[in-house]
Fold this protein.
Amino acid sequence: MPLVALTGGIASGKSTVARRLAEHGAVIVDADRIVREVQQPGSPVLDAIAAEFGERMLLPDGSLDRAGLAGEVFGDPGAVSRLNAIVHPAVRAESAARFARAFAEDADAVVVYDVPLLVEARADDPWDLIVVAHAPAELRAERLIALRGLSATDAAARIASQVGDDRRLAIADVVIDTAGDMEHTLAQTDALWARLSGNGAG
């Protein structure tokens, strides 16, 4: 019943790795999806965001103005810290509940927490294995420009806003090199699955 943390910088191919593990039978718990769910209208988290950053963070239908909030906190470490203090505890509690539910349903499940901000928020949690999807920053910038339509300046800013690759790699038990072609990434992911499903996390 390994509990695996999967992380990687923006445009690192992390989602590709997660999808492949899901195809093999892993239970994927998506941190970004939990963030969106705990910020639904009427939630304590959304109420706290509005109280901290202003009612202007809410759209007319009462939902969170994600773009507005991102613009409010981007590049402001103090604002990011205040936002994280609101959001992270709720995400931690919900993710823990989902891990427990997955293992209750199948004691032998391989549960993978797909989490962009592992280094920033969850590095010290008791993971059985930390997997980092890794490609050089220059290549990830090229992907952001080609696949997501960002400008070179915006791509560089998005990458710079995250922790550096060295900090992610420093906590990795397994590194999946995503700089090559898709087959290379999938082959490494398949080997990881064989390890997780056959020999446990050790």
